[in-house]
Amino acid sequence: MLAADFYAKKALVLEPIPTKDIALAVLGGSAALASILLVFVGFMIMKAEGLPAEASNKIIRRYTLRAKLGLIPLAEQTIVIFSSYGWLFYPTSTCLFHMWSIGFVLGIILFVAYAVYVTFSI
Predict the structure, then answer these.
(1) CA distances from 33 to 17, 60, 75, 98 (A)
(2) Measured between alpha carbons, how far is residue 63 from residues 18, 54, 67, 97 in Å?
(3) pTM score of the predicted model
(4) Smaller CB count within 10 Å for the chain: N or C?
(5) Are 37 and 117 spatial neighbours (Cβ–Cβ below 8 Å)?
């Protein structure tokens, strides 16, 4: 038996991943992203507070504004966490299903956009 035949037969017997497993993965992934965001926002706030007294208010506001903007994707990830957790108890809820399935993709986009924005604006 050739290796290609072996893998072709294996591909035919693969079962789809249960939606509950995907919801659990989304729950864990969202929690990880939220944790990273929380730490990064904390670093930004510490940077703003650690600036010397001679620093202008404009620079301090710039750091605090960027830290506060990080709360948007953090809040979005928190909504995804709660909706995926709630869906595990109410799997017939289409509203919760759409909140975590679409919200996770939106959260990743917001996370990357925030990271790029902060990286190139400071």
Answers:
(1) 23, 26, 11, 19
(2) 43, 15, 6, 36
(3) 0.80
(4) N
(5) no
